[in-house]
Amino acid sequence: MIQKTFAALGFFSFSFMVSQPAAAFCGFYVAKAEASLFNNASQVVLARHDNKTVITMSNDYQGELTEFAMVVPVPEVLKKEQIHIANQKDIDHLDAYTAPRLVEYFDKNPCNPPPLYEQRALIGGGAKTKESAPLPRSAKQLGVTIEASYTVGEYDILILSAKESGGLVTWLEANDYKIPKNAGDVLESYIKQDTKFFVAKVNLEEQAKAGFTKLRPLSMAFETPKFMLPIRLGTVNANGPQDLIIYTLSPKGRVETTNYRTVKLPTGQELPPYIKTEFKPFYKDMFATSVNKEDMKAVFLEYAWDMSWCDPCAADPLSKKQLVELGAFWELAKETNTPPNRRVRLGNNLKTYVTRLHVRYTGEKFPDDLRFQDTGNRENFQSRYVLRHPYGGNDECAAMDNYRKRVQDRREKEMVTLAGLTGWDMDTIRPKGKLPFKPVDTPKPNPQLPWYKRIWGD
């Protein structure tokens, strides 16, 4: 029950890089690394502006729904109207739009070079709610107050407060919530901050009426001066590191963590073209290597971009309706107040800036909840990896040998880069990274010739 949910919703539940210029990219998008690439990766959409916060949690729970429950620390007693059933398709769309991506170029025929201008370009619904069943009677004796009780869609929801963790743990266990052994200490730290607890279980009767086979995301809206995300409860009974992908929505700009380092992932590196068919294992191993280099003590930036446009686009930007559904209430305003000289590529005229953060964590490496700041920085960034396909034609000209020699040098650098990013063995990389043409032999001196001819030739 709760134990399984901790693994699925661990963020809450007990749940050489340089920024790329905003010029046209000129490449072709060919693949992306979405959240589903990582086993049991939790996803959160965090929309925030002026202390108003909307958090949407994607529930990827697998198993008997009778064993599902979720406990989320919240700063206040939420009303029914502050709880909402979100659309998983909107989160999937946001995931696709912000996903790390692979792009490719194709070399032109060196015997027929492109015009100068091309060469320069290459350089550069809320568900209906009803009151739930009568509340348990033992709560008061244990110092637990049931502040509110709702049924929202397929979820039965309680908002709890407690005087001490022991009573809260006892009440939860008495009501068939299985709590990990060491949860009490973490719960106590939240209780001392006067935190409330959002507790949700599946109402099987309501789910059957609605006809849904999968749990839909839950959203909650509240106001708090604290810009943070509670993750410590998710580490109590975890079997190992957990992955969490956070999509922040803000009208101001990029969001970063303040109590952990925010590190840009490697981007813009050129890789051997065979990675087109191995992009997913490449990205998983590249991310793991980056995590190890930072000793699992950093939060990684995968994407930061203005929602009005993208380049290259792994998916279309979200619509204003989708953004509002995910909590971007500022998009409701009639006037968008677009900053001067801002280039709106797709005509959406949106004000939202999205940041995608990816963290792999354990309780030991991340002993504190994540705290954030809105930097106001609107400089775009994306995790992007480049393939350059050599020209493979049979044309021959004075420039061809020089071109092939340059491609040999480039391919060697690509393979070395790949090994450095992933830790893969060069003996495995080299056979896959072979060139489509015979390597150009570098002339070697003939030792049988007189020494002066070996210097100057015939």
Description of the molecule:
It is a single chain. The chain is 24% helix and 26% strand. By secondary structure, it is of the alpha+beta class. The protein folds into two domains: 10-51 and 87-124 and 235-396, no CATH class; 61-86 and 127-224, no CATH class. The strands form four sheets. Strands 2, 3, 5, 11, 13, 15, 17, 18 and 20 form a nine-stranded mixed sheet that branches. A five-stranded antiparallel sheet has the order 4-10-9-8-7. α4 packs across α5. The radius of gyration is 27 Å and the shape is elongated. Mean pLDDT is 82; it is low at 1-26, 120-137 and 335-347.
Q: Summarize this, please?
A:
The chain has 458 residues and is an alpha+beta fold.
List the helices and strands and how they pair.
Blueprint: H1 2-8, E1 28-32, E2 42-49, E3 52-58, E4 69-74, E5 83-85, H2 88-98, E6 101-106, H3 116-123, E7 129-130, E8 144-152, E9 155-162, H4 165-174, H5 183-192, E10 196-202, H6 204-210, E11 218-223, E12 228-229, E13 242-250, E14 255-257, E15 261-264, E16 270-271, H7 279-293, E17 298-306, H8 320-325, E18 353-361, E19 370-374, E20 381-382, E21 384-389, H9 398-422, H10 426-432, H11 451-456
Helix pairs in contact: 4-5
